[in-house]
Amino acid sequence: MTSLPAAIIFDMDGVLVDSSPFHLRKWTGLLRAHRIAFDEQELRRIVLGPANEATFRHFLGTDLTREQLAELGEELDGNFRREIGPHPPTIQGVQRFIAECHTQGIPMAVASAAIASNVKFLIAALGVEDYFRAVLAVDATTHPKPHPEIYLKTASMLGVDPAACAVFEDSLVGIEAAKRAGMKCVAIASTFSAEDLRRETPADLIVPNFEGISLQTLRHLFNGDGNLGGGHVSG
Q1: Low-confidence residues of the chain, pLDDT below 70?
Q2: Looking at domain 20-84, does it have CATH number 1.10.150.240?
Q3: Superfamily of structural domain 7-18+90-223
Q4: 55: how many CB neighbours lie within 10 A of its CB?
Q5: Is the pTM of this model over 0.85?
């Protein structure tokens, strides 16, 4: 019987926390405050997943200084915390799944494209910080997703082979980063539709949330036997 993954790595936004609507609102607020025109239909693809610096430069130009980026980051961070409040909504079933993994002694980590202050804020608000052996934010990397650096670095911190890791992601660039790191990737259809994820990503499995996902699902995924124990996406 195929063994369980050596480690499980979670992205944060759209995986642990159903935060995409709040991220859209923080960007909308910032862009309107700075009188920057944007297409509301395209905003989701531009801002959800990539690092903030890339998005700032997309809208405000490539010649932004480090001081300007820092000021914009503080403004955006303030917008986000104000929007999401002290009790962020979780993705359905995630806390039960984290508890299952913890009971089985599987190392877990968070690898997020968000800045460290937001990652710490949300993990503490969810009350799950003690479950994770490593927490990496974009601040700890040189190359943002879709570069695999953050996932390879997380695997190294956990002392496991990247190929033995399972990643939970929601964004197009995040899924690409996980697969480029040589890891199995389960896509959560919280930020993008299951249809978009099927069409545009190499995810190994696509699910609406963590309901129906178990360690047995991941065992089947690593075994490649096609029987995913109810974890397949529907609709």
Answers
A1: 1-2, 225-235
A2: yes
A3: HAD superfamily/HAD-like (3.40.50.1000)
A4: 20
A5: no
